[in-house]
Amino acid sequence: MTDEEKDISTQQRGEMHRIDNERNKGVQLEHRDAELYIALGIFIVALGLPVILGTFYTLQAGSYRPAVVNFICGLVMTGIGIASILYGWAMKKRLWS
């Protein structure tokens, strides 16, 4: 094997390691993103549930319009949180397979 062939094989090996390193970083980033989506979803659900429960206190005061607004906002927040949790879970599941 000549020196030129050794240099080419070294370059090819270096390129293979660089590609593998970038690919592993992408997987690590996807794991991080999936975990963030799940954590963000749990946080939004935790904020949405008290808003829904606040609807009942508003109804006791006899105000119907604020109760409807609270209920709709709580449902939207909880729905967004659940969607975020499911999306993060789907990302993790895709990475596992």
Can you lay out the helices and strands and say which pair or pack?
Layout: H1 3-60, H2 64-96
Helix pairs in contact: 1-2
What does this protein look like?
With 97 residues, this protein is an all-alpha fold. It has one domain. The chain has 2 helices and no strands. Helix 1 packs antiparallel against helix 2. The radius of gyration is 25 Å and the shape is rod-shaped.
Helicity level, as a percent range?
Answer: over 70%
Based on helices, strands and strand pairing, what is the structural class? Answer: mainly alpha
Mean of residue pLDDT? 83
Number of domains: 1
Low-confidence stretches: none
Largest sheet: none
Write the H/E string, N to C. Answer: HH
Tell me the span between the first and last alpha carbons.
Answer: 42 Å
Share of residues in strands: under 5%
Q: Determine Rg (CA atoms, Å).
A: 25 Å
Q: Tell how many strands the DSSP assignment holds.
A: 0
Summary of the model, kept short:
This protein is an all-alpha fold and 97 residues long. 94% of the residues lie in helices and 0% in strands.
Give me some keywords for this one.
single chain, 97 residues
